[in-house]
């Protein structure tokens, strides 16, 4: 994949806007998940209190992350899990490739993990001639298509059934069919033989529990359970922010996550992994490794505003609610983390130069904040990142590589700030704007740029708010007199 740039974002967003098949698939899927979420949370009268509890747990854990990580490491080791630390994506990939190679792996089975996507683990495994097989159905589909996920929890959300059927015919030789059952059976048959032959299973981790040193994984397909229990070696890759203090905290997140993500009360499977197979166990890996990844996260901890990005439990609800994501889908963002949460974490992980357009890919409507189960203030983060980009100040966690805005733009904004700081100057400019906007043939004079390319500019009321206010004060004075 060539390097992502702000220009590419605009091009990809534009392509997506002209792709009717993509837009109808997105409309259907995001609408369905949004409706299911609403129905699921309507059954929980204490939903707001639960969200607040989730927010407080995450805030506390992120504030004392060093302490909880050490507690997790020591308890995990006590359980026989081998804990490794990776400062960045390269270290994580090198570690996992080495572990897989020492296990003699030629094929590894993988369960869905955004963190492995973030570090581009599949490419690193392939370079070492180890074949990674995605076992989540959606991930397997996009692996066959040679694409990257376009949604955090529904990787193939952008594909229609007809496109998937065509892909199966082309890549695995399935006779043409539009029968969902046949498509699933075909995938299941191929994947089952991979589970049996793979030497290593690689997963992510939804939560790492400091109190017990265990990891928890949630899923609906059963592939995670097979990935983590059938191969001889299990390797989990988790961002350092996945730690939660106690097993009781799981009760909060297991209610928040599935309801927000898929609108389920609970996912079909929850796997709590507390070490390798013990004497007398019928199944389970002989070795369990967990790789704890930083990759820019500890820099995000420095400020409150950016720290909250790490509270994300990857439910995907903000993607489904976002009017921008609903129109352009995930690929336009050029990041494994699309949508509102992607727009705030990608510039912090990849650098603001490459992703400087993403914080602007939002109307700031606040729908993401409203649905977020841990109350992340994404609009606040978007504004913070926009101001970092505009001021060319460092984005925490990212290389300080923000290009300066062109000088005429910077000068223009300075003049504008000065002009609107004075009440008389502000009144004059709003009077001029109102006069121009009421005369359509003069509207081209307004510096609204691309704003009106896809929107109407509404004609302002004949009397401004300031005039009405003045009148009402005068009226009050007359009444008092
Ligand atoms: S930011 Fe909130 S809504 Fe979006 S994926 Fe993360 S937890 Fe879910």
Could you walk me through the main structural features you see in this protein, from its secondary elements to its overall organization?
The protein folds into 3 domains: 1-43 and 318-405, no CATH class; 46-156 and 198-295, NagB/RpiA/CoA transferase-like (Rossmann fold, 3-Layer(aba) Sandwich); 411-480, no CATH class. The chain is 52% helix and 10% strand. The protein has 23 helices and 10 strands. The protein has helices at 6-17, 20-42, 47-63, 65-78, 89-102, 114-118, 121-127, 137-145, 161-172, 180-197, 223-229, 247-261, 297-300, 304-307, 317-321, 323-328, 339-350, 352-355, 367-371, 378-391, 407-420, 423-437, 465-480; strands spanning 82-86, 107-110, 131-134, 200-203, 207-209, 214-219, 233-239, 243-244, 269-273, 287-293. Helix 3 (47-63) packs across helix 12 and helix 17 (339-350) runs parallel beside helix 20. It starts with 5 loop residues before the first helix and ends with a helix.
Number of DSSP-assigned strands = 10
The helix/strand class is alpha/beta
Measured between the Cα atoms of the first and last residue, the distance is 74 Å
Principal-axis shape equals globular
Cofactors, ions and other ligands in the entry: iron/sulfur cluster
Tally of helical segments: 23
**Mean pLDDT across all residues, rounded?**
91
Largest sheet: 6 strands, parallel
**What is the CATH topology descriptor of the largest domain?**
Rossmann fold
- What is the correct CATH architecture of the largest domain? 3-Layer(aba) Sandwich
Strand order of the biggest β-sheet: 1-10-7-4-2-3
Pick out the low-confidence regions.
none
**Helical percentage:** 40-55%
Bin the strand percentage: 5-15%
CATH superfamily of the largest domain, by name, is: NagB/RpiA/CoA transferase-like
| Count of the separate structural domains | 3
CATH hierarchy, class of the largest domain: Alpha Beta
Gyration radius from CA atoms, angstroms: 26 Å
């Amino acid at each position: 994949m060539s390097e992502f740039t702000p220009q590419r974002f605009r091009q990809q967003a534009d392509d997506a806007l002209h792709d009717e098949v993509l837009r109808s698939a997105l409309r259907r899927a995001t609408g369905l998940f949004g409706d299911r979420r609403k129905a699921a949370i309507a059954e929980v009268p204490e939903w707001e209190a639960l969200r607040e509890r989730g927010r407080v747990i995450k805030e506390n854990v992120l504030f004392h992350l060093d302490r909880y990580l050490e507690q997790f490491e020591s308890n995990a080791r006590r359980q026989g899990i081998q804990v490794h630390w990776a400062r960045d994506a390269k270290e994580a990939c090198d570690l996992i490739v080495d572990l897989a190679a020492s296990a003699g792996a030629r094929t590894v089975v993988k369960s869905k993990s955004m963190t492995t996507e973030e570090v581009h683990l599949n490419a690193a495994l392939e370079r070492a001639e180890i074949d990674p097989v995605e076992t989540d159905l959606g991930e397997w589909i996009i692996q066959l298509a040679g694409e990257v996920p376009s949604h955090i929890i529904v990787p193939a959300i952008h594909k229609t059934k007809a496109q998937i059927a065509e892909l199966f015919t082309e890549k695995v030789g399935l006779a043409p069919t539009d029968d969902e059952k046949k498509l699933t059976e075909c995938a299941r048959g191929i994947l089952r033989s991979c589970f049996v032959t793979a030497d290593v299973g690689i997963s992510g981790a939804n939560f790492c529990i400091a109190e017990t040193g265990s990891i928890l994984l949630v899923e609906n397909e059963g592939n995670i359970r097979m990935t983590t229990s059938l191969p001889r070696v299990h390797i989990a890759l988790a961002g350092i922010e996945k730690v939660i203090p106690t097993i009781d905290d799981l009760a909060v997140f297991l209610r928040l996550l599935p309801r927000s993500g898929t609108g389920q009360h609970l996912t079909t499977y929850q796997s709590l992994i507390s070490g390798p197979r013990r004497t007398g166990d019928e199944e389970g890996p002989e070795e369990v490794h967990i790789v704890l990844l930083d990759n820019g996260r500890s820099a995000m901890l420095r400020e409150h505003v950016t720290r909250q990005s790490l509270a994300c439990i990857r439910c995907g609800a903000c993607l489904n609610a976002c009017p921008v994501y609903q129109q352009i889908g995930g690929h336009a963002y050029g990041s494994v983390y699309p949508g509102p949460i992607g727009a705030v974490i990608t510039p912090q992980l990849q650098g603001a130069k490459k992703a400087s357009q993403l914080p602007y890919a939002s109307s700031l409507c606040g729908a993401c904040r409203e649905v977020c189960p841990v109350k992340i203030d994404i609009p606040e983060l978007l504004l913070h990142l926009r101001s970092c980009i505009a001021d060319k100040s460092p984005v925490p966690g990212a290389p300080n590589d923000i290009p300066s805005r062109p000088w005429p733009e910077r000068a223009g904004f300075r003049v504008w700030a000065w002009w609107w700081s004075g009440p008389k100057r502000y009144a004059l400019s709003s009077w001029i704007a109102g006069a121009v906007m009421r005369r359509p043939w003069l509207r081209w004079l307004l510096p609204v740029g691309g704003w009106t390319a896809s929107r109407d500019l509404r004609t302002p009321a004949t009397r401004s708010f300031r005039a009405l206010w003045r009148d009402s004060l005068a009226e009050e004075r007359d009444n008092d007199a």
